Amino acid sequence: MDRQELIEQLAVPTEAKIVMIVMDGLGGSIHPDKKQTELEASVHPNLDALAQVSACGVQDPVASGITPGSGPGHLGLFGYNPIRYLIGRGLLDTVGIDVPLTPQDLTARGNFATLDLDKGVLTDRRAGRIPTEENIRLCKKLSGLKIDGTEILVQPVKEHRVSIIFRGEGLSDFLTDADPQKEGVPPIPAKTLKNEASKSAEVVNRFLEECRNRLKGETRANCLLLRGFSKMVNLPSFSKIYKLDPAAIALYPMYRGLARLVGMTILDSKEQTLAGEFETLKENWNKFNFFFLHFKATDSAGEDGNFEKKVKAIEEMDHQIEKLRAMDPDVIVVSGDHSTPCAFSGHSWHPVPTIIYSKKAHYRGPERFTEYQCAKEGFLGRISSTEIMPLALANAGKLLKYGA
Predict the structure, then answer these.
(1) Is residue 403 part of a domain?
(2) Do both 33 and 144 map to the same domain?
(3) Beta strands in 148-302 (DSSP E)
(4) Mean per-residue pLDDT pooled into runs of 10, the chain (404 residues)
(5) Counted domains in the chain
(6) 3-state secondary structure of 283
(7) What's this model's pTM, rounded to 2 decimal places?
């Protein structure tokens, strides 16, 4: 019996409410120029005040030393073993934009990118984060392709991100990424991980070649990169395991897709802002007893290596914490799916600072909500991300005693 199976046996439904705030890419490391992490440099009195009356610590999204993607990072926060349940990014983005899928469909997450045609190397993997409106126009340029009987659907997601659906017989997701995930190098083809994926690799690579032909006249988005090849999966029900009625508030499709895969109700925000997300939370407060609220800006700034922008994003979240506490949830979790230090301009293996607040916790937390104070002074110490949901349930009075 694994931990999740045990929790399913012990969990009981109650009226207590849990709010999980996921600040994407929250964790950092000391910046060589700033001599601080982004959390240390930011002014966040409301998060500090919450940490002071909470159980705090740091969590490893997958395992020590492992740099996680956003999918594994969120699955761990939701209590799913991220090693056992590995989901490709393509499926998460596609489910997140409400595209109906069949069991035969092969999905991939795409980035419009900038390719230096003279040197043959990538200069920007995100094509300057083009506006979504431009993304929509480019997707129309790539529509209508069919290769060896495989229909290819190109769907806009957000900014530079697209979702690709390969629809046909005999497709496999045993493929390597067609994305080097760094700049200054040429694009790479998808390769097979198993012989059964040979047809899929050929279709994918011919599609990418045709995309470059159709995008030649574009100044920024003249190349497409693909990663996260995946087919439909079935995950255990979040509601059934934890005896919760869960809802998700997220602006980016991938996180909506992941929440939908575990069975959460997806709530739409009228305003596509963090303040709009919290307004959606307030409007739906009496309808659910678990809320997952996702905040992307911390991660985007980290990936861009923009220290000041990540500091401002942390401070933007801090302004909303007072509103959250006024709603008086029984449990508040604040954490991240991984660390994205500006010094790295990408995801890293560093453990993520975490707050678990409840009126039952009765722990004196650190003075400030930072990586080092949470690790040094937090009651939780260093834990696995998969321990967070059981701790949240326990603090909400939703777990029975185990054994006699």
Answers:
(1) no
(2) no
(3) 150-158, 161-167, 223-230, 246-249, 265-267, 290-295
(4) 91 97 97 96 98 97 95 96 86 81 90 93 93 94 91 92 93 94 94 94 96 92 94 91 98 90 94 96 98 97 96 98 97 98 96 95 88 95 97 97 91
(5) 2
(6) helix
(7) 0.82
φ, ψ of residue 69 in degrees (nearest 5): -80, 175
Beta bridge partners of 335: 22
Total Cβ atoms within 10 A of residue 306: 16
Give dist(CA 19, CA 23) in Å, integer.
13
Task: Supply φ then ψ for residue 331, to 5 degrees.
Answer: -135, 135
Residue 348: other Cβ atoms inside 10 A: 19
Provide the 3-class DSSP secondary structure of residue 35: coil
Number of neighbours of residue 79 by Cβ within 10 angstroms: 22
Helix (H) or strand (E) holding 331, with range, is strand 331-335
- Which residue range is the domain that position 138 belongs to? 93-230
Is the CA virtual torsion 171, 173, 175, 181 positive or negative?
Answer: positive
Burial of 230 (0-12, 13-18, 19+ CB in 10 A): buried
Q: Both 359 and 241 in a single domain?
A: yes
Give the domain CATH number at 74. Answer: 3.40.720.10
Contact by Cβ (8 Å): 79, 241: yes
For residue 153, how many other CB atoms are within 10 A of its CB?
Answer: 18
What residues contact residue 180 under an 8 Å CB cut-off, 6+ apart? Answer: 122, 186, 187, 188, 225
* Same-domain pairing of 356 and 248: yes
Contact 340, 33 (CB under 8 A): no
CB burial of 25-54 (b: ≥16 within 10 Å; e: otherwise) equals bbbbbebeebeebbbbbbebebbbbbbbbb
Distance from chain centroid for Cα 53: 27
Residue in 292, 376, 307, 367 with CA at minimum distance from that of residue 337: 292
Classify each residue of 363-375 as buried b or exposed e, where b means 16 or more C-beta atoms within 10 Å of its C-beta: bebbebbbbebbb
